[in-house]
Amino acid sequence: METDSVYLNALSHYRVLGDFTNMIALGEAGRAQLKFTPWALSMQYLGEAHAKHGDRERATMVLQEIERWDPGSEAERAAYRTALAPPGMTDRSLQQAESSHIASNNKTRLTALSLLSFYLEDFEAALRYFDRRKALGADMIFSPALNDLIGASDAMRRAMLLVQLGRFDEARAEQDKAEKLQPGLTDDQSWDLQFCLGRIAEGKGNVTAALVFYRKAIAIIESRRSTLSGEAARIGFVTDKQQVYVRLIALLIKAGAATEAFEYAERGKSRALVDLLASRSDLGFRKDTAQTRGTEVERLIRELRAAEAGVAHVDKRNAEQHTRALDLIAHAAERLNRTAPEAASLITVRHIPARDFQVLLKPDEAILEYFGNEKALFAFIVTSRDVRSIELDATMLNRVTAFRKALQDPNNPMARNLARSFHASLIEPLGLPSGTKLFLVPHGALHYLPFAALDNGQSPLIERHLLRVLPSASVISLLAKRPSPANRNLLIFGNPDLRDAKYDLPGAQKEAEQIARLRSGAKILMREKASKESVNMQASQYAYLHFATHGTFDARSPRSSGLLLAVRPEAGNLQEGMLTVDDLYSLDLNAELVTMSACETALADVQSGDDLIGLTRGFLYAGAKNIVASLWQVDDAATEQLMVQFYKNMATSSKAEALRRAQLSIRVKYPHPFYWAAFQLNGLD
User: Is 580 helix (H, G, I), strand (E, B) or coil?
Assistant: First the structure.
């Protein structure tokens, strides 16, 4: 029973953090090891994790498994008598205990089925299971205040189900019950309350009232979020709250309030990366004025992030290890808050109004930001003069994976057709003047889309527009504050020795040597010298860093993704020489440009709230202003030529323009986008 509690506590923690990978790992372990109510709860969490991670098929399989479970079967009764029934019970007492146990399990089962049906958007089934569970009554009588809280929570849950079914009058009646009990609600529940009231008002055509309720819901969400310590908690907190922002933004766009809609789109992201960048900047300022205090706060923040990173290295099926790792996070957060009560404000950036972005844009520049999901997709075009918005066809979001797969096969004819379809859906409705220099801010699946390859049937997008990619518009003002390095020195890591000839990159070595000859004073580290130790000791002294290495992206543990660097002879595996995302959080760079001439270095796990966990994020936090990275496994020969041309072009062009010219040059020899469209520049240039 104690083990059951450990599993459920760990699952609950990961649920709060929005860590679906660990929820799935522990849920699978619970499927085999837990029984009775703990099993049903574990399965509920497992199905929820699959559903929120986008795997509807596995979530449905979990739901069906819970449906098949019969708590009153003879096998369950026998298992109960063996495992739980106290010794020495009379037959009458045992029958009563069995009946109580079966009833409790039935309630747990119906609750799990209702919630999973909701996550799978089968709202009729969710309401049916909910009402069956409610008909069974309460498990026990609590204090009046707690009973009120439970009653209000139930009323809100039922109201939300009725809203999804368009039964707004019935939903309003349920909300009236909850509103009478509102003083006893927690923040998490009251944002639900305001959102549900907004849905009811919108459903009945009262847009003004709906806007008021949605804004109140978001104010509660953001107030709660500002109290959270730690990157993972802030990312996970917005998991089930994106729908509030999508609803509000849709109404604002219809009302012609494009600027406010854009600002809420920025606020709708978890903003954990923005907070990281802000904390680095703010801590630097504080150290100038209060060295000891700033250093201590910085140490505590690093300690918290190290504790969060430790979760990635525990045994995925060991609940005790997970719990210990989570306890370390909690204790680190407690120490930070105890030592620096102002830490929440220190590492939370204020909401940045659109005008703060606009004043940084040149007349020929624009931010093109996307926001939404597979049901509703919006685009914002922000220039120095105005903000425009438009609702787009969201159906193409489901074809991003197919497009990427087709692009990586030069013989696949689907690539060209999909390139035109994406251009028609995402670019043509915007009416962008040719020559506009774009800051692209993707959302969701669009982070994996190679915008350079989108084609209008006559030319790819990169031929008509200079492209730069950003994780959010909010990073513009933060990156703009970073000072330019005093030197222009280049440090190159090329073809590291991985102790296995199959990993050698002769093209990368040739690339590194050619680039070194283009830059006076460039330093090149090859083979065994191209190591993680060399990065840690020397990278901070250089304005330009170039990695001609293998790169890996681990979708299940994105913070373990990295660049493969030289391995010592005594090392047991390649991972011992890997420069991971977690390693980057400990670096202190002042780099004008980091170039990763490696496979999949631009990929990241798109977390809830649209925060990206990957190498680009790590280098941005470490202090890089611009990063060149790739979206898929690139061709060695084409990459060598592209990179050499890129560095040649930088002698007379900006970084983004140099990359654009290099890609267009390679396109002459290798027309298919597979060879040139993978690379993108992340940053301000």
Answer: strand
Q: pLDDT tens-digit profile of 312-325?
A: 566 655 666 666 76
Other C-beta atoms within 10 Å of 222: how many?
17
CA-based nearest residue to 518, from 484, 544, 487, 485: 544
Residues 6+ apart with CB under 8 A from 414: 402, 403, 406
Alpha carbon distance 121, 461 (integer Å): 37
pLDDT at position 603: 42
Burial of 169 (0-12, 13-18, 19+ CB in 10 A): exposed
User: Among 33-47, 159-173, 388-402, where is mean pLDDT lowest?
Assistant: 33-47
Which secondary-structure segment (H or E) carries 374?
Answer: none
Contact 597, 508 (CB under 8 A): yes
The answer, as to whether pTM is greater than 0.85, is: no
Angle at which helices 144-164 and 123-135 cross, to 10°: 150
3-state secondary structure 13-58: HHHHHCCHHHHHHHHHHHHHHCCHHHHHHHHHHHHHHHHHCCCHHH
AA identity, residue 10: A
Structure tokens at 26: 């522990």
In contact, 484 and 673? CB cutoff 8 Å = no
Distance CA 523, CA 189 (A): 57
Amino acid (one-letter) located at 307: A
Q: Measuring CA to CA, how many Å separate 544 from each of 316, 415, 481, 591, 597?
A: 38, 34, 18, 6, 13
Strands 562-564, 578-580: pairing is antiparallel
Q: Which amino acid is at 613?
A: I
Instruction: Calculate mean pLDDT across residues 253-268.
Output: 92
Which of 383, 362, 477 lies closest to 430 in space, CA to CA?
Answer: 383
> Rounded CA gap, 650 and 206, in Å?
55
Smallest Cα–Cα separation from 449: which of 413, 404, 405?
404
Q: Are 495 and 530 in contact (CB under 8 A)?
A: yes
Alpha helices in 398-474 (DSSP H): 400-407, 414-426, 461-464
DSSP state letters, 382-416 = E-SS-EEEEEE-GGGGGGHHHHHHHHT-TT-THHH
3-state secondary structure of 441: strand
Q: How far apart are CA 639 and CA 642, in angstroms?
A: 5
pLDDT value at residue 250:
94
Neighbours of 83 (CB within 10 A): 10
Residue 389, token pair as written in the block? 């918005």
